[in-house]
Task: inverse folding
């Protein structure tokens, strides 16, 4: 089992290793965590993030909790489907509503991890019910802002970290298209849709890296136990 206390920054809910590797390249001791194995060789804790999130040695965290039941794109599914139509007038879908509330509970694990000095939580644009449970993001970003010429809005909940500064404008591209809209069905479609793009991963490491390097973590659980 990998010793997670040897790492300073936790990249939660990441199987791609994209952000982890960008941070590592910037000289930061980062480790990813997901229930699935990492798709890129590198430090990775395979298991439940709840097992390692409470450890008090973390200097920083970037989290990508599942957005399926929180995203505005799926808000219609919160209500019953009658004659092929989802509508608020049909009443709530209890199962879907419960999954939304569970998704919010998981998301808030990272919001409430106040023992980690620097935190960034990323999620798709949320519907109003989710925002009531999770709060509003501090920033929205698009891949084209950081060198990848397509759209895929992401909200960022930031604690102790500044907003990311864009490196590109729309005028830098001949054409910008949605990343997910034309993506054909496949077994790994959801995986591809959720992967962090190289441009923003690079800027996370470049712009937030110095903050992670200078951060002072809370006392470790092991130090507390020895007192």
Result:
């Amino acid at each position: 089992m990998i010793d997670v206390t040897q790492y300073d920054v936790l990249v939660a809910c990441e199987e791609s290793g994209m952000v982890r590797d960008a941070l590592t390249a910037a000289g930061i001791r980062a480790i990813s965590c997901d229930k699935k194995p990492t798709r890129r060789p590198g430090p990775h804790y395979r298991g439940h993030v709840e097992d390692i999130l409470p450890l008090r040695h973390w200097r920083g965290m970037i989290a990508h909790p599942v957005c399926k039941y929180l995203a505005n794109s799926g808000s219609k599914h919160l209500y019953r489907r009658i004659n092929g139509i989802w509508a608020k007038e049909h009443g709530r879908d209890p199962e879907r509503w419960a999954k939304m509330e569970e998704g919010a509970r998981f998301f808030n694990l990272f919001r409430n991890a106040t023992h980690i000095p620097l935190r960034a939580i990323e999620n798709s644009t949320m519907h109003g019910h989710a925002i009531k449970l999770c709060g509003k993001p501090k920033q929205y970003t698009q891949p084209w802002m950081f060198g990848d010429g397509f759209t895929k809005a992401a909200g960022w909940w930031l604690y102790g970290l500044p907003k990311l500064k864009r490196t590109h404008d729309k005028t830098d591209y001949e054409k910008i298209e949605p990343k997910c809209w034309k993506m054909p069905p496949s077994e790994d479609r959801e995986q591809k849709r959720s992967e962090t793009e190289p441009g923003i991963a690079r800027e996370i490491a470049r712009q937030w890296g110095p903050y992670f390097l200078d951060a002072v973590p809370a006392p470790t659980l092991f130090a507390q136990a020895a007192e």
Summary: Residues 94-111 form the longest helix (18 residues). The first strand starts at residue 9 and ends at 12.
